[in-house]
Specification:
7% of the residues lie in helices and 49% in strands. The longest helix has 18 residues. The radius of gyration is 21 Å and the shape is globular.
Length: 405
């Protein structure tokens, strides 16, 4: 592990931070009688594929010198109402979110923020080959998954343009505008770089034991949780690192055999929410205890981690029918709401879950396990964003619609 805080502090190197080539040579000397067998090679190939799937690592080329270009409108931009035409061909689920109480999205060619009246608050041309977005509160980070460029928006416009040394795997931002980036690093499996809201490097850590797939930082900018994938004795192992920005070594390293972890995030009470392919977990803030919520063979259809818990839609059938909505609180308390539908997209607001199924939006109160009301989503509905108690936005193929609740 190598940690860097600020610009003047010297770098410190631990055994884990030894470049992969040297690390493997040392290990081979210890294990000459145990060469990599065929099964282990297969596992390594599987892990590489899972990293691509889980972390969204893409292989495209950066196509422009400037990440985003365009015009900035005020937050009081007048609109003609909804629907609003989508700029670009596609919006991936997860690349549309609420920023500063307005709808923000990143398509393959455009970054836009739209107010509740359909007015365009921000309209920026995207010149990344593989753009992605992470949003939280009043902030968003837009980055290129096939390049090293990124930009920060405060909800009224792009406030900063930056870059890291190598290709970005994924990025996250907290409610205060601090952000973290996982990227490629020669000699290591990944590098984590953390920046404060003034865009100054706050911390860095180099990984050599796993292929990282996700990162979360807390709102006080004191810790990060990183998940990744590794192999051991022919099995896939998911790893979770908890990093304290004042420490040289991780304050916790957790291994989970035969589970593929999709994401791990801090919640308001300091516990960590974890979602995997076969189970979800709440890890306590002392990192010594955890609560497991096994899917019991159910198929995970959709997932969401909030500040206060985990929401899952799970189906007992391979075709996704008859989903149940699980709400796991930050303290490990669970409710199960049964439905008779498959889930195409899910978003949450408080204890309410909005489900998109067959071009219909259905609201459920997970605290009482009851169905509230149905709404028409339109024939081309692809995903939904639950903005507040009064509004759900529908992302269609060519337009964005507003459903008033």
């Amino acid at each position: 592990m190598k940690r860097r805080k600020g610009k003047k502090e010297r770098e410190m190197l631990s055994y884990e931070d030894k470049p992969i080539e040297e690390y493997e040579r040392d290990e081979n000397k210890k294990n000459k009688k145990n060469p990599l067998n065929g099964r282990a090679k297969v596992i390594v190939v599987i892990i590489a594929a899972l990293v691509v799937i889980v972390g969204g690592v893409s292989i495209w080329n950066y196509i422009g010198p400037n990440a985003l270009q365009g015009s900035l409108a005020s937050s009081k931009a007048n609109g003609k109402g909804f629907p609003v035409e989508i700029q670009g061909k596609t919006i991936s689920e997860g690349d549309a979110n609420i920023v500063n109480n307005n709808l923000a999205y990143t398509s393959d060619t455009e970054f836009q923020i739209i107010n509740s009246g359909g007015g365009i608050v921000v309209d920026q041309r995207v010149k990344y080959a593989s753009p992605a977005m992470s949003a939280n509160g009043d902030y968003a980070i837009i980055y290129d998954k096939s390049g090293n460029q990124f930009q920060i928006s405060n909800g009224s416009g792009i406030t900063y343009e930056g870059s890291v040394e190598d290709t970005i795997y994924t990025a996250t931002i907290n409610k205060n505008g601090d952000y973290a980036i996982l990227s490629k690093k020669s000699g290591y499996t990944a590098k984590l770089t953390v920046f404060n809201k003034n865009n100054e490097q706050h911390y860095a850590y180099y990984f050599s034991e796993c292929y990282t797939t996700g990162v979360s930082i807390n709102n006080s900018l004191t810790q990060a949780v990183v998940c990744g994938l590794d192999a051991s004795k022919g099995s896939i192992v998911s790893k979770i690192y908890v990093l304290d920005f004042t420490k040289e070594e991780p304050i916790a390293k957790l291994d989970f055999k035969d589970i593929t972890i999709y994401e791990a995030k801090f919640m308001n009470n300091g516990n960590i929410a974890v979602i995997g392919d076969t189970t979800a977990m709440i890890i306590t803030s002392d990192y010594k205890n955890k609560y497991d919520f096994t899917y019991n063979g159910y198929n995970l259809r959709s997932r969401k981690i909030t500040d206060n818990g985990i929401f899952l839609s799970l189906s007992p059938f391979e075709d996704g029918k008859s989903c149940e909505i699980w709400n796991i609180s930050e303290k490990g308390i669970t409710t199960t709401t049964k439905t008779d539908m498959s889930v195409d997209s899910m978003d949450v607001c408080g204890n309410n879950a909005a489900i998109l199924s067959n071009n219909k939006i259905t609201l459920f109160d997970t605290s009482t396990q009851t169905t509230l009301k149905d709404y028409d989503a339109g024939l081309d509905a692809q995903s939904i964003v639950y903005a507040n108690n009064n509004t759900v936005y529908v992302i269609g193929i060519t337009e964005i619609r507003k459903v008033e609740l």
